[in-house]
Write a structure and sequence with these properties.
binds NADP nicotinamide-adenine-dinucleotide phosphate, 15 strands, seven-stranded mixed sheet, Rossmann fold, Quinone Oxidoreductase, Chain A, domain 1
Length: 343
């Protein structure tokens, strides 16, 4: 039976997460270069919150469907598309548009789902694993024996970064905000975990900790203290600013402006004399660079990691509860939405 409609979560414009509303849309004919996927799981990312509140530089203007990754089953293959057949299980990345029961995608953005992974694990994999891989290998130049500080180590990106660091012979040291998360990480076999104290700089000094590489997506004083704890030749890789996370459904612009004015700044002359550096990136840029993205995915395919940890599964209708949990900072591993495929 041909599917004629799909369900999506769409916002008329960024600014307030409450505007995100469910809609049913008629499906047009499949473009010949595309593949139609019946989505069984959607991976949530912190970037979704920043896009919905308008704090993300890549936020689309006007109405948009959030969502950067999904997993499901191929329903239909366009006349000029190849590489997949109806019934194939796939995971995929998309530059927005992922919060949907059906997604049309170019084959370049789809990856076969390993046989022993479920859809939620597939939807939890591409964006966060690519982010961790890019930070560690391309910018971080991780080598065996290097000590790597990884903030939010029980989160989506953080946990993948912990596993990849270990797989590449580095020594991961994770930080988290709660003793519960720290205990959970220890259960996963990571023995070096810090529960961040209010004065993180003092905590690092007291414990005499120094690092070759730091992965930071929090910002502010945590980032400053981490930079100060770098050894000579050390690198701070920055890829987010969770300290700007709104506590409500929309940003407190005054608070955000205050934080922005007080953001850490780095002096390149000091970096030369102290022999430490700061690097930063935003992977959304990669969506346009298909060849580079395929190369990164192929590299990742050669590192045998276990499937990602899905910490929280929500029915598709409960997107607001799922986003509230992610925004609260209490989630562990990945938060996933599960639409009934083929709606
Ligand atoms: N640049 C890129 O290309 C790129 C790509 C993907 C993700 N990112 C960034 O990487 C980070 C992790 O993304 P993710 O999707 O994997 O999310 P996540 O780590 O699963 O969740 C975010 C975590 O941020 C921490 N956090 C710190 N301060 C917070 C605050 N004020 N409010 C709420 N949470 C706070 C919390 O962990 P703890 O409190 O335990 O630290 C929370 O669990 C995000 O900042 C995201 O924007 C960047």
């Amino acid at each position: 039976m041909t599917t004629t409609h799909r369900t999506v979560w769409q916002t008329p414009r960024a600014g307030n997460i409450s505007r995100l509303a469910q809609q049913t849309e008629q499906l047009g004919p499949l473009p010949p270069d595309q593949i139609r996927v019946g989505v069984s799981a959607v991976g949530l990312n912190f970037a979704d919150i920043f896009a919905l509140t308008g704090l993300y530089s890549a936020t689309p203007a006007g109405a948009f469907i959030p969502g950067l990754e999904f997993a499901g089953t191929v329903l239909e293959v366009g006349a000029d598309a190849s590489g997949f057949a109806p019934g194939d299980r796939v995971m995929g990345v998309t530059r927005f548009g992922g919060y949907a029961s059906i997604v049309d995608s170019e084959p370049d953005y789809l990856i076969p789902l390993p046989d022993d992974w479920d859809f939620a694990q597939g939807a939890a994999w591409p964006a966060q694993t690519l982010t961790a891989w890019y930070a560690l290998t391309r910018l971080g130049a991780l080598e065996k024996g290097l000590q790597v500080l990884i903030h939010s180590a029980a989160g989506g990106v953080g946990l993948q970064a912990m596993k990849l660091t270990r797989a590449l012979g580095g020594i991961p040291v994770g930080t988290v905000s709660s003793v519960e998360k720290a205990a959970w990480l220890r259960e996963q076999g990571f023995d070096k975990v810090l529960v961040r104290e209010r004065d993180f700089a003092r905590q690092l000094t007291r414990e005499d900790l120094h690092f070759d590489l730091v992965l930071d997506a929090i910002g502010g004083k945590v980032q400053q203290a981490s930079f100060a704890a770098l050894k000579p030749m050390g690198r701070l890789v920055v890829f987010g600013a969770a300290e700007f996370t709104p506590t409500g459904k929309r940003p407190n612009y005054l608070k955000a402006a205050w934080r922005y004015l007080r953001r850490p700044r780095y002096d390149v002359m000091d970096m030369i004399s102290s022999n430490r550096s700061v690097l930063a990136f935003n992977l959304i840029w990669l969506w346009e660079q298909k060849a580079q993205m395929r190369a990164l995915l192929a590299e990742l395919g050669r590192v045998s990691l276990p499937p990602p940890h899905v910490g929280h599964r929500f029915p598709f209708d409960d997107v607001h509860a799922a986003l509230d949990l992610l925004r609260s900072g209490r989630s562990v591993g990945k938060v996933v939405l599960e639409p009934d495929a083929h709606r």
